[in-house]
Amino acid sequence: MPDPKTGELRGNRNIKRLKRISQKKQDEEIARCLELGLEAAESINDRSISLFSRGHQPAFAGINTFMKAPYCEDVRKVGDYEAAFVGVPFDTGTTYRPGTRFGPQAVRRISAVYDGYSVDGGVDLFEELDFCDAGDIFVIPGNIEKTFDQVSMAISHIYTSGAFPIICGGDHSLGYPNVRGVAPHIDGNVGIIHFDRHIDMQDMDMDERMHTTPWYWTSNAHEDVEFHGTHHDHSHMHDVGLANCPPKNLVQIGIGGWYGSRPGSEVARERGSSVMTMKDVEELGVQKAAEMALELAWKDAKAVYLSFDIDSIDPGFAPGTGTPEPGGFTPREALEMVRLIAREGLCAMEVVEVSPPYDVNDNTSQLACRVILDALGTMVVEGKLGHRSEVMAADDE
User: What are 301-347's pLDDT values in tens digits?
Assistant: First the structure.
């Protein structure tokens, strides 16, 4: 919107701000591409183009990492970066349509279309954030519990290294082991803001922990919470929750439709977590709904974790998901809410339930990519992530 004092458009203000950001990374990439990819044919006038594609262009060429960021093959060095994309190609927890094991690669592929430069956000990610692609976690197909152990240990490694975890699933059962990889390292309560059309809070589904159960297990072990009755029938489970993820700090946004999960709804009622339906969002408006979610998630908490199920976006826009439910967010609404929530900072984030076999024109994968980019860009602008001050020249106007 225009500046109330000067009347200047936001876009014009952002273009001026972006001019002050260095192009050091861009220049370094050109030099690297020419060194590793050799100089182009003599007929090529633009001598920044290499013979073999080794950089961001062409978007359809090359070996994809997320945003064509550096591949951190030696994951012991992931702490050299400020953020790390990591794939979790697991869909054994799916209860309806499988295929989300291919989600991370689909998001990587479509991410090549972006160069990290946003006039709308006033941010240049490649200049202002050092991030890498840490590859995929070695999941164990067919074994949920062993996969959970692998995932928690891997996410813990990334988080404790100092890199911000950008987690791409995979089905939503991963919400539990993902948070379990972060929460034990935070000295205080962790709030969770969960976008979804489904409540995902029952204790078991078909006698297993599934993508319908992550928030039951994440927010369970608290003295003020009475364990759900069926828990004792599953004593083989090796843990029963995270002590610093209280239900009062769990906010679920976009819930609705006709796959309502009576068991999950009962758990939410018993524990006192906050459920914000799509009707609530419609009546409150996006900005007020985000404000309420932040207030609830951050109350007496030291950090907030963002879980974004792509099925929270209406399947007319995001058809490639395991359990589509009409009536969800439009992309513009969802991205605005993500930006509003990311302004306060996050300890980690996940985007899950992208199922490429059901996608159309990569629409769903692209929206998942945008959720990540909008969250990262907002945190960079707000000084919650990255190193903006180091690459921003003084304003000479």
Answer: 999 999 999 999 999 999 999 999 999 999 999 999 999 999 999 99
Q: Quote the tokens at residue 95.
A: 């209860």
* Whether 378 contacts 343, CB under 8 Å: yes
Pairing state between β 189-195 and 164-169: unpaired
Which helix (H) or strand (E) segment holds residue 85: the answer is: strand 83-88
User: Would strands 189-195 and 274-277 be described as parallel, antiparallel, or unpaired?
Assistant: unpaired
Q: What are phi and psi of 167, to 5 degrees?
A: -100, 130
Beta pairing class for 164-169 and 348-352: parallel
Rounded distance, CA 40 to CA 46, Å? 9
Q: Which residue has the tokens 């813990």?
A: 156
Half-sphere exposure of 51 (CA within 13 A, CB side): 8
Confidence of residue 23 (pLDDT cuts 50, 70, 90): confident
Task: State the number of CA atoms in the 13 A half-sphere of 205 facing the CB.
Answer: 25
In contact, 240 and 212? CB cutoff 8 Å: no
Q: Where are the alpha helices (DSSP H) in the chain?
A: 10-19, 24-37, 103-111, 125-128, 144-161, 175-180, 214-218, 262-271, 278-284, 286-298, 331-342, 363-381, 388-391
Distance CA 381, CA 292 (A): 22
Q: Position 272: which residue type?
A: G
CATH assignment, 62-391? 3.40.800.10
Cα 261 to chain centroid distance, Å, stands at 24
Closest CA to 196 of 280, 290, 312: 312
All structural domains of the chain with their residue ranges: 1-55, 62-391
Which residues contact residue 233 at a Cβ distance below 8 angstroms, ignoring those fewer than 6 apart? none
